[in-house]
Amino acid sequence: MGTNMAIQLKDIIDLDFLLDIDENNQSKNNREEIAARDRDIFNHLDLTGIDQTGINQIEMDDKSLIFSWLEYRKLVYFHGPGKEESGKKESNKKKSKRLPGTVFASLYRCMVYVMLAAGGLSGMSMAYSFLAYHGTRPINVGVFFMVFILLPVLLLALTLLVLLVRFIRKRTGMVNGHNSMVHILISFFFFRVLPSIIKKAGRFMEEKKIDNIEYASSLIQTKSREYKALFFFPFFIMSSLFSAAFSAGALASVLFRVAVSDMAFGWQSTLMTSSARLHGAISMISLPWSWFVPTSLAQPNLEQIEGSRILLKEGIASLATTDLVSWWPFLCMGILFYGVLPRVVLIMAFAMAQKKALDQFDFERPRFKRLVVRMRSPVMDVGFKEQPVSQARQGKNPLPDPLLQDEALAEKALEKAAQFPGTRALVLASGSVYGDEALGIVNQFINHQLFFDVGLTSFIFFDYTQDKETLVSLAAKDPADHIIVLQEVWQPPIRGLLHYFVQLKTKVFINKSLWIILTQTPGEESLAVDREDMNFKVWKKAVRQLGNPDIMLERLSK
């Protein structure tokens, strides 16, 4: 992929999924294997100048580097390690393997088809039954107008109001960490209703795919602040498709009824007794098309409006047929210009906004920076154990076999090592808890596992009022890219402590990533925290609920 690559939502979901796989492998051996693999990917890309798509990668930026990594990881995911499969059953299982981004794209596409079909059929059936005429009572133009023209306009206005509120909140910074009703609906429709229907039908989905549906669901449910902007416009595109299909179905029914049936339209009102006033209102409504449509079709004239008025005491026997049929062109044009076309324009605008949101997605977040640093770090003892890409070839330009560590590759790594210095980190810790020996162990972990260079260590009291002056001074003079706070895992993540971390990120180190590294109490046999430690799980949940993607939690591991 090049710098001008077209980013798709499914790619970001897959990227998140594959990064989560790496982050869940927290043992020392796994960390070393992951670091070696990522460095190896970068070496081969930089050495050959091409990725598996055949696009030049010599001067790739970080985004291009991340997506080249994604292309490789996708190949390994589909053709990864494992014993050779034999038998039809295992072969079918392999073929059914899907990444969550692909599953989400399939679900969304299926939901779009469902919305189009449901909207079109409901519009057709509703309009068809509404237009039933038995020769005694003409179709009420006022009721038809309210249901098939005015109601879509009101729903369109509501959609625009939601967008306006969202725009104002975004510009003014009035954004809370809670899910809005819109995103609750997104989660409900995408990840509850449709998967449930498919599972009950017993078609299209295997167990592996359902697991990935649940993973894609977690992007909204547990990472709402980070990803909800990406799911916002697809939801509105889907709802607008339903509305456009509904209006198009209603329009088709009107045209069909008019073509094959003898229709009569009339109006009646207790409040409006003047035909001239109604004619004025209709003239205003028909402005969008009256300038190019013949007057006889654009709207009924004053005489036709007067001639199609229904008075209960007089009936319709005295009404002229030409007056009773004069309304259908106006109603059809109203549905087209107020129901169908605005939604089509809105869908196009939503699609452009979605593309812009994807293009502006922040790849400078900590987890992506960590990947880039891992790829560009000078790791030479490559212990790569995953399936080589040479055995997973499907395209014309697959990545080279990562097991071939020749002299040219080693020389290239040494040349590039000086060009990408380690990312600096500032360590904040309690002076009464962490001594020199403990800090030495932590710094070694930071350097070898997180690939950060510790530039300065400062002691704090975990009280913002007391620490503010020191923190502001550090932020002004220390060029660190990452802020690391050491925390004992046994201490519960109480509200005051979590608020302190939020203050660090939002008031002092605004443009820097904040890492909370959990350790055991210094003086114990080991500072390492097990991944199954209950206290670690409590911390993980608490930090996740902060809803800030730039506040990361890590545990010190062996």
The major β-sheet equals: 5 strands, parallel
In the predicted model, the low-confidence regions spanning at least 5 consecutive residues are 49-58, 82-96, 379-407, 412-421
Measured distance between first and last alpha carbons: 36 Å
**How many distinct beta strands?**
7
- Strand order in the largest sheet: 4-3-5-6-7
How much of the polypeptide forms β-strand, as a percent range?
Answer: 5-15%
**Gross geometry:** elongated
Mean pLDDT across residues: 78
Number of helices: 21
User: What is the CA-atom radius of gyration, in angstroms?
Assistant: 32 Å
Helix fraction, binned, reads: 55-70%
User: What structural class do you assign from the helix and strand content?
Assistant: alpha/beta
Topology pattern, helix = H, strand = E: HHHHHEHHHHEHHHHHHHHEHEHEHEHE
What does this structure look like?
With 558 residues, this protein is α/β, with parallel strands linked by helices. Among the domains are: 9-97 and 366-417, no CATH class; 423-555, 3-Layer(aba) Sandwich (Rossmann fold), CATH 3.40.50. It has 21 helices and seven strands. Helix 1 packs antiparallel against helix 5 (100-130) and helix 9 runs antiparallel to helix 15. The longest helix is centred in the middle third of the chain and has 37 residues, at 224-260. The chain is elongated and about 105 Å long. The two termini are 36 Å apart.
